[in-house]
Amino acid sequence: MASQAGSRKSFIDSSINLARSNNFHGLDLDWEYPSTTTQMPSLGLLLAEWRVAVANESSSTGNTPLLLTAAVFRSSDYYTINYPIRVISNSLDWINVMAYDFYGPRWSNVTGPPAALYNPGTTMSGDYGITTWIQAGVAANKIVLGFPFYGWAWTLANANNNGFFAPTVGPAISTDGDIGYAQIDNFIAQNGASALYNSTFVSNFCYSGTTWIGYDDKESISTKVTYAKNRGLLGYFAWHVGADGNWALSQQAASTWGAST
After folding, report:
1. How far is CA 115 from CA 20, 148, 237, in A?
2. What is the tens place of the pLDDT at every residue in 108-157?
3. Mind telling me which InterPro entries this protein's record contains (predicted)?
4. pLDDT of residue 85
């Protein structure tokens, strides 16, 4: 779609019509992920043309312009292929940085902090990613920090080796190992699981027997929201609120940000 002018126009026009017909505030593009040196420029063309179309629609109808945002990779490059930073800055109202899925049982044979805010000496952290976006030229107040309301479950190779970076033999609980926060909460209660918070990585984990789950709990969420405020970011987002348990994480985030409840 993004590689051809005609299909870009069709997509853009239909998206604007869809947003207006449903009284949406805007549109968010989730392309996971532009991964070649031709796809990144195509993304840039799409965003630039989309912004022009949004402005023209607003001018011709008198409607408030639609917001235009995009979910993006954790860092400003996708494994050395740079995002079109100037176009992103000029065309989008903000970017949603997906600072999660660093470790998971489908691609990691050891346990790990799935959404670490810090991971010294590596590129696998939210702080590293946010820093690359700012250094690349995106204003901090156009950046939204993403965190997960779900975790990843592994089967430990040895129940007695149950910290970060412990050997594993595959997913646990579900086929892929993904598990929502509410389910994690239930798992801890039903199994008397040990639940810990690691302030170095800003990540939570729990384990019972050979089942090990990495996730974000209230401590991690609170620290990440404070981080977003301190770095002057526009805000935070979660994927996804439906996985929350009794709005515990949502309320923790809102309270930390300073929103009224």
Report:
1. 35, 7, 13
2. 999 999 999 999 999 999 999 999 999 999 999 999 999 999 999 999 99
3. Chitinase_II/V-like_cat, Glyco_hydro18_cat, Glycosyl_Hydrlase_18
4. 98
Q: Would you tell me how many other CB atoms lie within 10 Å of the CB of residue 52?
A: 12
> What CATH number is given to the structural domain containing 38?
3.20.20.80
* Domain match, 26 and 117 both: no
Q: In this structure, are 113 and 4 located in the same domain? A: no
- Which runs of consecutive H residues, i.e. helices, occur in the chain? 5-21, 39-61, 85-91, 126-136, 181-191, 218-230, 248-257
49 is catalytic: no
Pick the catalytic residue from 32, 49, 57, 219: 32
pLDDT above 60 (res 226): yes
- Alpha-carbon distance of 85 to 257, in angstroms, equals 28
Residue 71 shares a structural domain with residue 110: no
Please tell me whether residues 52 and 108 are part of one structural domain: no
Using DSSP's 3-state secondary structure scheme, residue 159 falls into coil
CA atoms lying within 13 Å on the CB side of residue 9? 3
